[in-house]
User: Fold these one by one.
Assistant:
Number 1:
Amino acid sequence: MQGTHQPTPRPAAYPVTDRTVPTRAAQKASYDKDLVHAILDEGYVCHLGFVRDGAPVVLPTLYGRVGEVLYVHGSTGSRPLRMAGQTDPGLPVCLTVTHVDGLVLARSAFHHSINYRSVVVHGLAYDVTDPEEKRAALDAVVDQVVPGRVADSRPANKKELAATAVIRLDLNEVSAKTRTGGVNDEPEDLALPHWAGVLPLRKGYGTPLPEADLAPGTPVPDYLAAL
Amino acid sequence: MQGTHQPTPRPAAYPVTDRTVPTRAAQKASYDKDLVHAILDEGYVCHLGFVRDGAPVVLPTLYGRVGEVLYVHGSTGSRPLRMAGQTDPGLPVCLTVTHVDGLVLARSAFHHSINYRSVVVHGLAYDVTDPEEKRAALDAVVDQVVPGRVADSRPANKKELAATAVIRLDLNEVSAKTRTGGVNDEPEDLALPHWAGVLPLRKGYGTPLPEADLAPGTPVPDYLAAL
């Protein structure tokens, strides 16, 4: 309406760049922020790539998301975290999160596939030095693994914070890829006698195993039972 | 015994290199071939890292193991596969496989962790051009996902083989990392009222979903039911 203040709409998608435009299967790529956030929020283990002496290194590590920022933490001796602190203006990284949802079994070996959702983030990782941001980042990583856990644990003390390094990676250059649905067999293969379909994958949790030295009577917290 | 022929023992471990010696948590690293093979054989999705224009790229993809060789396949248009075919003597890659076994919930935020098993392979990826090796590699990838499936599907034809690129990565520079067991809390934290222990993770399969156009009466194969 004329004269009415319109808030600037929050962009719903990440910009497409040379690094995030796919070379193939373009129909599977998405830059939708809500989809990217949902995929990231369902996980807590990423694969972090960086370059050392010209060669790639890929390490599994925990992450936490706070709005449009991802945090990764580790020992101050960890190589990528140390490198991020020593690289100006930041360490080039690629952070990837993948969920496998099902196995796609086609009649032809060629058309076998998996159903999955993945997010790939490109950018520069910056060493987090501000104590408040660092503390919030560590909380985000713990709550990413078990939502609600931060409020039910002893916060990091100064010595522990000093022993921990944190990097931040902004969600600027991001793409999601997904495959869903059934088999794409060739028409001439449909009469073959092989079973064809999708085998869904299930993830879940077993029974919580309390520590032997846990105070007797300590109940399993609601946020664990809810997982 | 003197005079008795002794076969050369198969080396039980990968050599330690500058790239596979850990910077920290050294007690978690292993170079044992049997452990590495077991971790690789339990999975079928890896995260493949390579360098493009000086920056790292990490993509999830399927793999198959044949002895001391890993194969990755994809479209001939796939960037890392295309790059491997154009790079002499091969494309530097890092291939990582990770299994998450449990969430480790300590009384202190700092000592939270996960139980996991991972394998990191460094090396050069070579474009596979020999038709027989290529076909065997594709079989290995399919059987890695569902053992026994290759024998129950239509083999790739010439056109499909031509549309598929395969790279090989030899298992030379390899390390495994694992964390198992319970919580490592500080002695002074043991009396805190927080629940502490391990939440095991479970992976499994749902009910197979047959394609709508599957011939009526096609049974679910034994190798699927056995998963």
Note: The radius of gyration of chain B is 22 Å.
Number 2:
Amino acid sequence: MNFFEKDTKTAMEAIKSAQWIAFAPIVFQASLALRDLGILEALEAAKTDGLTLAQIVEKTKLPEYGVRVLVEAGLGIGLLTLNNGVYHMTKTGYFILNDTMTKVNMDFTQDVCYEGMFTLQDSIKQTKPTGLEVFGKWKTVYEALAHLPPKAQQSWFAFDHFYSDGSFPQVLPILFKHKPKHILDIGGNTGKFTLKCLGYDPEVKMTILDLPGQLNMAKKNIEAAGHIKRANFHEINILDDSQKFPKGADIIWMSQFLDCFS
Amino acid sequence: MNFFEKDTKTAMEAIKSAQWIAFAPIVFQASLALRDLGILEALEAAKTDGLTLAQIVEKTKLPEYGVRVLVEAGLGIGLLTLNNGVYHMTKTGYFILNDTMTKVNMDFTQDVCYEGMFTLQDSIKQTKPTGLEVFGKWKTVYEALAHLPPKAQQSWFAFDHFYSDGSFPQVLPILFKHKPKHILDIGGNTGKFTLKCLGYDPEVKMTILDLPGQLNMAKKNIEAAGHIKRANFHEINILDDSQKFPKGADIIWMSQFLDCFS
């Protein structure tokens, strides 16, 4: 990897970047508000005609003062342009509104990370996730997952699945080449990968290894799909070396295990 | 003003910008941690030699895992480069560490705005600063100012003064050209501008108009400077039209009044 070998910015670009970083949380919240309050949507619907401030206020039914502050922020951030009093959405605005990866990342940042990140420096010094207190008393977020507020849980799994789902169709033919009879799905999460396997091969047996909260969610999903007879659920904390895996599987697979542990 | 007429980004630049926005609060907190935990400082001191991960850990006395996560974030954000295992600081890193405006802006964003910005959408809809609850029950931040936690107060005034101080030497000769005997300093804040005037002309009398919390701070500062005899303090809420200004001044001046009211 040699992405990061050179400082490619001029001094002017670097100070612009430093200022952008300095106001980044405000940039983020203003962009999220432009998206979630329907302002970008109204501008997209207006197509090349664009909208005046008064028209945006009328279409969104929002107070004029707040809309004015937001669209002015949108100009600085680069989500909007302004010509003779008419606002248009830029390409960046289009991606904030419509790109699935951007949407999934923004929701995850806001609903899961934003508040907890406030104490990042304490987390680094104490080598523990101090910001997790936002959601209660947990040792790791994995134990908290099944108990998060609905919006945070939804944004977590949308983020998680977005990055793993794309790999499933690519790995299934490789995994099933040698007709495995029994696969361990380490950190099987909500059962998405196990369900794919159960659907791919009507003979295969699957065992999901995860924390109890995740196993409960997986069990519900697999039951709903009618595959419960070929699925086993093994409670384990993978970070605890004293807990052993079940024996006798043909394949041990980590379908959704994140590389984020010290 | 025609800064914002054109969408100047290509689609590739726009999606990169959208992703940057999506993770902006994390970019911000990681940059702040690299600054405040002494990592950028250690890299600056190492000059062109740079530092390995082990050397950064040794110099900062921080846990290795946290340092590794932060320097990897620093590569992505563009604050650091990596060559054969050796980290160096980029120009952007230099500005984050050393540029006064960047420092003042980052402290203000973190200490005053970060937590409150979480509820921006509610503020827009309700036309009131809902995020201010972080600091207690206040109608506006101006009433809260004298009661903020010390760090938040310090960052607020550093931000405020940074943007007003530079104008003082430029406006004083203009203001005093006609030898005013009495100046009203509207929203006089901590008394910085009034003190400049009292120092500039040993005859002038000043009256600061502000909320009681600010007047108390100003009084202390002006007393400490030995100028209290020529200073008056007039309690007023400028946003309340029924409250009148004192009469008989030669100049009415808004030294530090922010343009941020609906």
Note: The radius of gyration of chain A is 23 Å.
